[in-house]
Specification:
Helix content: 55-70%
Strand order of the largest sheet: 1-2
Strand content: under 5%
Shape: elongated
Largest sheet: 2 strands, antiparallel
Structural class: mainly alpha
Number of helices: 9
Order of helices and strands: EEHHHHHHHHH
Radius of gyration: 25 Å
Distance between the termini: 71 Å
Length: about 170
């Protein structure tokens, strides 16, 4: 999918990428677009964009500049219509466009990153689903309390304030 809809229900097509469009992005909002950044480890354009949804919106805005002119949509209007759902749609479109542009080793690295990101997202959903379950929370609290009682048996037996018999220094 290389299209997405903004919150005003306007459809936008992202891509294809080429040297001119990458240069436009570099000149207008992201000088590091498609440039490896060894220090941070973000060497894939999609990885960098997914980590910064506002940058994703700005890059897509540049890539859709021709359509924006045709539809008489300003940059400000475009960015104002990029809510969370629109950015998620833009992410999917950018993923497809970058994948189409990438070849060879870069394509393999991109596919590996996307699979890693999908696994991380699935893991987060599963974890939050379990952690937010009240029964799981009660069981975790009971287990933590049991371990604390074993580690500090004297504190659990006499943990009331002022029971130590010593007065604080004046």
């Amino acid at each position: 999918m290389k299209t997405f809809m903004d919150k005003k229900r306007r459809e936008w097509h992202v891509g294809p990428l080429d040297a001119r469009r990458i240069s436009d992005v570099r000149e207008n909002c992201d000088p590091q677009f498609f440039v490896g950044d060894v220090e941070t480890g973000f060497n894939m354009p999609y990885q960098r964009l997914k980590a910064d949804p506002i940058l994703m919106a700005r890059v897509v805005c540049v890539l859709c500049s021709g359509q924006r002119r045709e539809k008489n949509v300003t940059e400000d209007d475009f960015l104002s219509a990029m809510d969370g759902d629109a950015i998620a749609g833009a992410e999917a479109a950018m993923e497809a466009v970058i994948r189409d542009f990438s070849r060879g080793r870069m394509l393999l690295m991109h596919d590996a990153y996307v699979k890693q990101a999908q696994a991380a997202d699935a893991g987060m959903e599963m974890t939050f689903g379990k952690v937010l379950n009240p029964e799981v929370m009660e069981a975790l609290a009971a287990e933590v309390q049991e371990k604390l009682d074993r580690l500090m048996p004297s504190r659990s037996a006499s943990a009331s304030p002022g029971s130590s018999g010593s007065a604080p220094p004046a």
